[in-house]
Amino acid sequence: MLISKTRVQREKKTIELMIAIYCRKKHRTKKGLCQECRELLNYAAGRLDKCRFAAAKPVCNKCTVHCYKPQMREKIRRVMGFSGPRMLLAHPVAAVQHFLDGFKDISGNCSINQPK
Length: 116
Ligand SMILES: [Zn+2]
Prior knowledge:
Layout: H1 2-26, H2 35-50, H3 60-66, H4 70-90, H5 94-104
Helix pairs in contact: 1-2, 1-4, 3-5
Bound molecules: zinc ion.
């Protein structure tokens, strides 16, 4: 389905932006991404690719994080917790909120909007 494919691409872009913010602030990377963040981005993009069939279903929103292996999930969780609120300020796109909604469902409460 064309729409769901676009959504996957949009989510990839969202993840990329989030990792970029995280890497710049946390790892003090001047340009691009550090090794670790590049791996994380590749992994996240790979998960989204595998997810493409199911992306037509609304619930698959959660899948982007559900199908991560624990180590990567922990990393992406940290990235989202850090970059999520900043993303909403810097890139107030509906897609971001949509993406965060899926993430929120995993633990039943939103780990993104809670102050750390
Ligand atoms: Zn980094």
